[in-house]
Amino acid sequence: MSNKYILGGGISGLIHAYLNPGYKIITPEIGGKISNDFMQNTILMHESPEAVEFLNEVGISFKKITHTIKYCKGGEIRREIYQLDKIAFIKKKMQDDKFDTKDIALSTHDYYINILKFDWKELIKKLSEKSEIINETVIRITEDKIITDKTSYEYDEIVSTIPANIFWQLYYQNKELKFDSISVTFALADEAPSILSGVPFDLIYFLDKRFKYNRINAQNDKYLYEFSGRLSEEEVKKALPKHAEIIKYYVDDNGIIITNENNIPPKDIKFLGRFSTWDHKIKINDVIKESKFSYDFRNIWSRQKDFFNRVDGLSSIQTIEQKEQKTQSFLLHMMSEMSEILEELNYKTHKLHKEINVDKVKEELMDAQKYLLSMFIVWDISMEDFVKEFNRKSDICDERFNKIKKDMEKLNEKI
């Protein structure tokens, strides 16, 4: 029985569940932020090999689009700005002239983004159809259980995609945490400012403080304005062009998040996605890549098992004696491979040093790794068992290291 759960039914949770069958999603609703039209217009999937492969696998048709970015500075529209301009804009966006700016990429380092254009609702629908979803609300998380408004579930692993500030309210412990964020107000309007008359753009940043909004996304014949902070419709109306009409208005309370270094997940729990990790740099593409890594690791295990079965036949290795004999054989093979790794290095002091062929080192390391992996398979150790044992042994190593460190500190104090 699978005791692996995903908290949250937003796009991050759905992607992870699709790429890693065996997880059950616990959520009262599907889609998360992207179910809101405003969010669909502000969240982009950048073109990448992983994203293209993922959409093709799910069966989502898409178009490759060049998303152009421009800047409004000093009453002029520009394609490029200086680093100091970007820093000034970020301080405007953060509503803090003293904000310590470390990441100045904005949407990208360049003045365009290659994106994949598709129907977000279709993607959510197809992913949810492939997922096992428990329609319940989580009210508490302990070290071994998820308690919902209807029942409870023992877990071996949790992938949390819910916002970090909410997670830590559910998983209460005495820990120093502070999650800073700034609300963002969105307004879809039927008119752009006059300064943009005749200017083609997809996204434009407004650096001047005389413009209350930070940026505008072009949405066909409509314009999505974005403001820092929680503004009323009346305040938004005053900031828009004189004759512009507000079509839709929305406030995202956690629109701008500020990375918190102490947001470290508890044991057996993994954080996935921008709001769970509380890291503004995380994009949908990163979620695909990270979720695919879990899938790839499982695939590596299965592929080696299949190869081992074809070469040796797993059915012929059943008894302890047979497992012992096969392990000894693999160890001898592995020792030979380890020797080949050594030959790629400058370990002989009496010989001239040679240039290291890193690709060859990788190849020899992988030969040794495949034999090591085969030994796990000989002893019927699954990928899940491997991860569990790795964590158990890591806990022991951490405990030993911490004890040695404390003993050394005490010894130094005496000296």
Fold and architecture overview:
It is a single chain. With 415 residues, the protein is of the alpha/beta class. The chain has 3 domains: 1-32 and 119-178 and 259-299, FAD/NAD(P)-binding domain, CATH 3.50.50.60; 46-117 and 181-257, Polyamine Oxidase, Chain A, domain 2 (Alpha-Beta Complex), CATH 3.90.660; 300-399, Helix Hairpins. Helix content is 40%, strand content 21%. The chain contains 12 helices and 16 strands. The protein has helices at residues 11-19, 37-40, 49-58, 83-93, 120-129, 164-170, 233-239, 274-277, 284-311, 320-343, 358-378, 383-414, and strands at 4-7, 23-26, 63-73, 76-78, 112-117, 132-134, 138-141, 145-148, 152-154, 157-160, 181-189, 203-206, 215-219, 222-228, 246-257, 269-271. It starts with a strand and ends with a helix. The mean pLDDT is 89.
Secondary structure layout plus pairing:
Elements: E1 4-7, H1 11-19, E2 23-26, H2 37-40, H3 49-58, E3 63-73, E4 76-78, H4 83-93, E5 112-117, H5 120-129, E6 132-134, E7 138-141, E8 145-148, E9 152-154, E10 157-160, H6 164-170, E11 181-189, E12 203-206, E13 215-219, E14 222-228, H7 233-239, E15 246-257, E16 269-271, H8 274-277, H9 284-311, H10 320-343, H11 358-378, H12 383-414
Parallel strand pairs: 1-2, 1-10, 2-6, 3-12, 10-16
Antiparallel strand pairs: 3-4, 3-5, 7-8, 8-9, 11-14, 11-15, 12-13, 13-14
Short description:
The chain contains 12 helices and 16 strands. The chain has 415 residues and is α/β, with parallel strands linked by helices.
Keywords:
FAD/NAD(P)-binding domain, alpha/beta, 21% strand, 16 strands, globular, Polyamine Oxidase, Chain A, domain 2, Helix Hairpins, 415 residues, 5-stranded parallel β-sheet
